[in-house]
Amino acid sequence: MGRWRTEDNGLPVDASGTVTLWGGETFSFENGVEFAHQLAKSTRVYDCYVLRWTRYATGVQFVEGDEGLDELQQDFRKNNNVKELLVRIAKSDLFRYRRKDGGQP
Q: Which of 10, 38, 69, 89 has its CA 20 to 30 A from that of 56?
């Protein structure tokens, strides 16, 4: 983190790389900006973002495929609006109701 540089201790910085996300999605990049753009295009990253917010908001350790989570993820992929995502989580049954046995909704 810090200032942009092209050298480190007199040697050129190689900011390129290849990343494999969970589920096998792979992409390559030449620099940090390209890396950020690749992440921003990944539906896996969007879905993870929704999953983490839903877990935080509800205190429940949801997993991919849990009922109600898919709809939130699909909507967020379409509109990319964090404020709307948080409102939708708060209005969802996932947030509003708990199972009597204390398990996952």
A: 38
